[in-house]
């Protein structure tokens, strides 16, 4: 019964994280007057203050020493921190450069990569329906890649970096919030240096310069709150990957790119032609198959448990 509760919590944590990530292009689009590197630096600094500050308040200075005492934690969290910083930077630049649909393609590819990593690296097993859904989704991604019009380097880079990040967080044996705190501390000094350079060279978000002047204090408030929006879904994601199979995380992750696609097409006015509709249709069919199989197996297991009791 306890395991069932933990699995359900992991499921909802994953869903919540992916919904937030799905609608986030609209938030970052509000800050398009601020250079992308400055937005990334603000995300790092304010999320560090939020997460590390809470950890120091609750656990004292000992939390950092205890976290880094885990085998391989120091270098693995340094690597995961670098991967997520790269992912953020490329993503925000792409959103504000008008490539929201391509970013959504990247996060459609990423769940397939997670499923493959779950099977190859973590030795998770898929049944016939799940393999079928993976094959259909792979066909959809290949169709999108072949008909995109140019090599989708943004999409592939986003998929690879976030897939590697998720795998590392799955493998490193530290609590989710503590792991994010260590990642943030690794990144905060370079981020502060970048912020200081930007503010003294006319590219900051707090001192009004050029296009940012029209925002004034609103831009600053959005940048600060961006730290909260950075920390919450990452905490939820890191918690979820420890509670539910990584292959399930891979399929649930389709929530985020679907919402990103809708934001790009319906709100930001990006193109969505017939070829893209066909490719995305394959992916949505795969998601429906995988989710339906999971629900059926869950009900079967619950019925069997009820009979046993």
From TrEMBL:
Record field: transmembrane: 12-30, 36-57, 73-93, 105-122, 129-145, 151-168, 180-197, 217-237, 249-272, 278-296
Pfam families membership: EamA (PF00892)
Residue span(s) of domain EamA: 9-145, 154-289
Subcellular location: Cell membrane
Listed SUPFAM superfamilies: Multidrug resistance efflux transporter EmrE
The entry's keywords: Cell membrane, Membrane, Transmembrane, Transmembrane helix, Transport
Bilayer topology term: Multi-pass membrane protein
Coiled-coil intervals: none
Location (main, coarse): membrane
Domain of life: Bacteria
Keyword Lyase attributed: no
Protein name per UniProt: EamA family transporter RarD
Species assigned in the record: Cognatiluteimonas sedimenti
Lineage of origin: Bacteria, Pseudomonadati, Pseudomonadota, Gammaproteobacteria, Lysobacterales
